[in-house]
Specification:
The structure is a homodimer of 299-residue chains. Chain A has helices spanning 37-55, 96-103, 112-123, 184-188, 190-197, 210-229, 246-258, 265-268, 284-294, and strands at residues 5-10, 14-22, 25-33, 62-66, 81-82, 93-94, 107-111, 132-137, 141-147, 150-151, 234-237, 275-276. Helices cover 33% and strands 20% of the residues of chain A. The first copy, chain A, has nine helices and twelve strands. In chain A, strand 2 (14-22) and strand 3 (25-33) form a beta hairpin. In chain A, the strands form three sheets. A five-stranded mixed beta sheet of chain A has the order 3-2-1-4-7, sandwiched between helices. Chains A and B meet through helix 6 of A and helix 6 of B.
Chain lengths: 299, 299
């Protein structure tokens, strides 16, 4: 009998818990809102206990992709904690230990965006790539990076939503980030678009100047990411990127900013295959969590 | 008898060829100016042939850290070539094959800045770190990155000197980069400092506003690098960083730009140990080439 794995996509708005092996074999899936840590973590534990007790499902391990910032350093006392999040009640919350202790299973822990990148790397747009980046551009902006075939952690983990950008000359908006006057998330997240233009992104017409400005900020960020880590592909997901017309604008402006400097054919001649939407859509995170759980088999 | 290794630091201004095993055991070293490709590559070959014929020195392999852009993709027809460099005569030059064929030795090839990062990682400021970045800020600006314990290649290789920055409000200079109106190298390289202020960097007084502006550009870049790849340390080398007074300014401004967002003790409380000069000084590149040559022993 083949192994089954658990996946948890722990988001700031909702949690998704799944059991399965791959995109074509998800046996159970449950979604519930992110409320208090105690209640939400208990609902997570209950999902796995119920599938075990009621359906006899045994899983090998659990992958957990979590909103952050989180502590990924296994030598740290705070390993497995959500650290300095502004989300009320969730600062300094240990999320790994309660799940691991209640279910007596190994838990493989990473950021929500690294989980999505891992999912796209295993079954989506990043298959077989050594270096690529997965961005989510929505309520917040974050990115997971796979470099040398592994997710990037480093000192903390990437926080690409907070790189600094040049303010667009037509932009009078002060930015939404409480930390940075001119960062990517502050200029280009969904809430920034809504506050700047006085209406939600999904009600702004295709011909509105909002989209040229949005594409400008995203292209500046991609130009910097390309020069910094030389990804073989960039995957753009999240709510704002449901505006698919943005892709062509972003691709053109990214080429304009790079101005021919990076001598790569895929950028110069074939950028439609370089800056792409996720292949797993909004399932990248939960499937990535399953893929993370499966890494235990290599140990 | 222990193995000996060759190292080549192939710079745009000069080549350095060495034979040895580590910083305390360099048996031969030769420096010569970078002239035409034929002449310079021949001088490199001659160095290794002469040490062999005159002193009986047998080496196991050669590490080659090269100015670029270079093609690092071993599946590419242009692997081992310097590609689109503006340096006259050097565009599309195969540097690996002539050396490998003449000396009948394995050649391990990477960028000059990755070689320096590898050297610092083996014997210098990056020992035991999983993720760190080595910058050279001088005639040009480039960086080597070690992520997940390996140098980053990806699509091409990092070109961090060309990330886009916000123009300092006191800066009236148009920038030195022919590709980008507002990139790091265009604003902050040695030649940019000289052209902006009308005198070479090393003749500008400590109290001159040039240094606050320089530190501002470097700090913006470091802020973006920190948010993008979460390095555990940043090493700043190169001619401009011989102005050691810059370090304190850069550290303070980097903290100001991050504004407490990255919850890492080494940044918040101990940034003197986070943004540091190279421990190997100007030997990082040649020693890194030796370290690269030694990787052949693991195969």
């Amino acid at each position: 009998m083949s192994h089954l794995f658990g996946g948890i996509e722990a988001g700031g708005t909702k949690f998704v818990c799944v059991i399965g092996t791959d995109p074509d074999n998800i046996l159970f899936e449950k979604r519930f809102p992110t409320t208090s840590p105690d209640e939400t973590i208990q609902a997570t534990i209950d999902f796995f206990n119920e599938t075990k007790n009621e359906f006899g499902i045994e899983i090998t391990s659990i992958g957990l992709g979590c909103f952050g910032p989180v502590d990924l350093n296994i030598n740290s006392k705070k390993y497995g904690h959500i650290t300095t999040t502004p989300k009320p009640g969730w600062g300094d919350t240990d999320i790994v230990s309660p799940i691991k202790n209640a279910l007596k299973l190994p838990v493989i822990f990473d950021t929500d965006v690294n989980a999505a990148a891992i999912g796209e790397g295993k079954w989506g747009a990043g298959v077989n790539l050594e270096n690529f980046v997965y961005f989510t551009i929505g309520t917040g902006i974050g990115a997971g990076a796979i470099i040398n075939h592994q997710p990037v952690h480093g000192l903390i983990h990437p926080e690409m939503g907070h790189i600094l950008l040049v303010k667009n000359p037509l932009d009078n908006y002060k930015g939404k980030c409480p930390y940075h006057a001119n960062c990517f998330e502050g200029f280009a997240s969904g809430p920034a678009i809504e506050e700047r233009w006085g209406k939600p992104a999904d009600s702004i017409h295709l011909s509105h100047p909002a989209w040229d400005m949005e594409a400008d900020y995203i292209a500046q960020a991609l130009c910097n990411i390309i020069c910094t880590i030389s990804p073989q592909k960039i995957i753009l997901g999240g709510g704002v990127m449901q505006q698919f017309h943005l892709f062509q604008k972003i691709r053109q402006k990214t080429k304009d900013y790079l101005n021919g400097y990076i001598p790569a054919k895929i950028i110069l001649e074939n950028i439609d295959e370089y800056i792409v939407p996720p292949k797993l859509g909004n399932q990248a995170g939960m499937l990535g969590a399953i893929a993370m759980a499966q890494t235990i088999m290599k140990v």
